[in-house]
Amino acid sequence: MSSQSFERQPAIVTGAGQGIGYEIARQLALNGASVLLNDIDERLASTAAQRINEEGGNVFAMPGDASLHSFIQDMVNEASSRFGKLAIAVANAGITLFGDFFDFTPESFQRVMQVNLAGTFFLAQTAAAQMKKQGEGGSILFTSSATGHQAHKNLAAYAMTKAGIEMLAKNLVIELSKYHININAIAPGATLTERTRGDIEYEKTWSGLNPTGRASTAEEVAHAALFLLSPISRQITVQTLIIDGGWSSVSPSPF
After folding, report:
1. Could you state, in order of their start, the residue ranges of all structural domains in the chain?
2. Out of 22, 29, 83, 248, which could bridge 34 as a Cys pair, Cβ 3.0 to 4.6 Å?
């Protein structure tokens, strides 16, 4: 992809202090986008923005809780004011809460729903309203999961949110297409990030389960994201691209 593929394409990426979100923000910035980088952890957000800027990107850190409607509106306002408009929104912020179905608490359930579903829904709503007002179209991307397609032990609530995110994307084609806004999702499987890289058991387990013989890298997931966000993909909408080394086709359990 050209280093200028996203020139004059201001973007918001939530949950981008590390991992997949960080790499999406990084690759957008290094390909010409101006990026508002969000993470709930202030230190992670500022460090991530600094690292990308040192590579030549144009990134502004805005730490905060991307599941809150008021903060989402603040992010859209800030990006639009700082960069002149908003062209891309990536709803990547999310949490994974493992738990036995019979013991899962209402508090845990509400938290995973708030972050994964409400955060995604209201970023899409607020960003799309801004894009509609601008009249130039745009791209919205959700981060789902391979577990939204295949069962995974102790992830009932999490998987429910990820399947719901994909259905949201499908439904929004009705609302957004006439404004030239396309909307898609990526569904990563096992991925090497700061949390999992170096975990010998994690790498060994998923190398044995994935038909490709290894877990994905954050860079590989980000490449898929950039494809769906790029100008060359404007006719692709309401699609979910699964990046899991083939796991969801065979679905062996890691437990």
Report:
1. 11-244
2. 83
